[in-house]
Amino acid sequence: MPSPVAEPVVTVVPAEFSAGVPAHVESTGPPDAPLTVVLLHGWTLDGRIWRRQRVALHEAYGDRIRVVTYDARGHGRSGSAPLPSATLAQLGDDLARVLEQAVPSGPVVLAGHSMGGMTIMEYAHRHPGAFADRVAGLLFVSTTAEGHTHTEYGLPAPLARLVRIAETAGAGVLARCGSCRPPSLLMRVLRPSLRWLLFGTECASDDVRLAGSAVSRARMCAIGGLRPSIGAQHRLDTLAALGDVPAAALVGDRDRLTPPACAESIADALPTTELTVCPGAGHMLMLERPDEVNTALRAVTARALEPHLALTG
Fold first, then answer.
1. Mean pLDDT, residues 210-221 taken together
2. Architecture of 11-312 per CATH?
């Protein structure tokens, strides 16, 4: 199992989403680094899931890069927000706002896990000019451009349809629960289910606890409110219009939420994408398969750094 990691020095960057919603943004590395890597977490999670990638990037590139993570609205240490703002479109606008405040200039690599990858696609769709000007590389981890088209929870199709109906109904209930968080007793009861849903054949107990801790910090209205737009999103056309931006996509072959077909369709739509399928892995590749994720992220980052290295070399 992966060994514990030592985090680089973290700076909290003052920032907010729209309507004064506080945004918890963290930065490591020099503000004037020639390249910034922005890491976006998935639905119900928070920025801590990228801890090993943040360390790996600084070990590889030192002061040549800056790494920024943030908790999406209604998640982690960011503020809650009204239910109508719990949409992927709003998250795409939130990414644009975080970049304006925390990374106002210079090229960026965007890396997104699950909902984070979908957020990147929304940013590309809603802010195409800014995307073209700023984005020098992309990493998609366990994500999709087709909503729940391929999601069958690792179950036979009839049973998967029943689970989706139950999940959709449950999301509707959670959406009406306001800014409260899941009770700790409920999280303890759900831990085996989270382990089954999010992880593959092998995982460390500390990683399961981290995932559960992240879910326990998410606001009920964000968990429930975001579900409809996550299920409905279709952005293959957006990806196809991105041109020759360096990209990579990773997926576990035991991923019950975004199975390999999701990553394959991303790679088909964006031909610059290097596709990696991780045997035996589930949805939480940053924790389950950090070496593979780190390798792909370093490769995209290296390509994004090439123009700067040519100028300084």
1. 93
2. 3-Layer(aba) Sandwich (3.40)
